[in-house]
Structure prediction request, 192 residues.
Amino acid sequence: MNTGLFIILLVGGVWGVWYLQTSLPVLKTIEPFQLTSALTGERYTSDNDRIKVVAFFYTACPDVCPFTMRDLKEVYGELEAEGVFEDKVEFISITLDPEADTSKRIERYAGSFDADVLSWRWLRGTEEETLEIAKQFQMQRVKLADQTIAHSTTLYLVDDRHQIRGTYAMATYQDRVNREELMRDVLLLVEK
Prediction:
């Protein structure tokens, strides 16, 4: 084999492997959405050129939601140290139970995680808005007779063009959010 051709193929192969390891696939594109901030009362629009870490929750959730928010608080602190929040990244938490989760109730809940009002948005909408947004994210939810909500346990990383670029398992009793992977992927999108 020609040495020059071999070097070209080797460099191309190394670059290809590096590219695949450092780029995130586009899993799905969602439509921009608007909801109300439970902490400020202002109308929030997702069409704001920021990378988003999106979590669905409800305040009466006994396990997955609070465990996940605890882990997100740690990721938030690490990303804050990187200085990415001012105009590049934001956390979005959307209630799956807008009927029970009043703004006051969400405000208390968010306060237990020391959420920054400007970079960690706690949102609620009407029942119809919530259903539409959950559908876009393929977030399944069912309200049970005892008023608990059975829901999918997925976090989402959305780029500044409304493309879902990563999904991550929410925390459980046994497992935490993969904080290292989430932080790495957020920083990959920030650097592009």
Notes: The radius of gyration is 19 Å.
